[in-house]
Amino acid sequence: MTDQTQAPPVAGHNQPPRLRHPEKAHRSDQAQPKKPEWIRVKAPTSEGYKKTRDILRENRLSTVCEEAGCPNVGECWSQGHATMMIMGEICTRGCSFCNVITGRPDELDVFEPGRVAHAVQKLGLNHVVITSVDRDDLDDGGADHFAQTIRAIRHRSPDSTIEVLTPDFLKCKPGALETVVEARPDVFNHNLETVPGLYPTVRPGARYFHSLRLLQRVKELDPTMFTKSGIMVGLGEDRQGVLQVMDDMRAADIDFMTIGQYLQPTPKHHRVDRFVTPEEFAGYEKSAFGKGFLMVSATPLTRSSYHAGDDFAQLRAARLEKLGRA
Q1: pLDDT digits over 55-91, tens only?
Q2: Which CATH number fits the domain that encloses residue 229?
């Protein structure tokens, strides 16, 4: 999920040709709705924010917080929390909602897993979220790089819990998903992003039921692993479509659902259809819990990794409570 900010390139990285999604076919020239007060956030200025930024810069690490322009970056970095984005800053997909650069990626940096682990240790993270760009250029979609990063963090910070937010591995050779699951992250997250009817314009390189099956397969490989997925609202979906996605997720045995407001990063990206009210988000949260999710986060500013550590603690507690009732 995105907003209007854009990160500077990391010093020392090669810079091949890049595109910020020129001319989307589904772009609307209509002005987007005015951003309401409940979606506004203050610019980051705290010392904690600067410390987190400096540690990330020292280790030459990218974050989805910057690359996707997350509105919560000031709050999260002030607390030393950052979602690290591995395998470069250039994505092989061109989703209409996303502000990450599309183009030809760099070669994988074999030293990156170690630098991520060092940053996790230096930041003192109890819970870390690792995500990536899509790497359809790689045979395994970067699955082994995810696994190496997980193992490096386990070595440096054995008490840290690890959440991965992966691509869909749609164009990979068999075994990619298994490689990540075998590395034993504590949470396996893959976002559905939107309702299936909007995939042709919002997420054209992906397939809704493939993404669902990916998450279902994680549970088949390791029933103890928490699974998580999220969607954005305000793209043009209706309430019934969101409720159907909830049912599909539960059919795939997904434990944790996130729902947040889509924010248009540039005029060339998919237009905001509307700003969903906090009351509607509360209604979605109530419905999702009623459908059996162990954990739900549904607010205008919810993002996949927003308050991920606190949410993970609640997720574990909810499972223990459920097992106690069984």
Answers
A1: 667 766 665 555 555 565 555 555 546 678 899 989 9
A2: 3.20.20.70
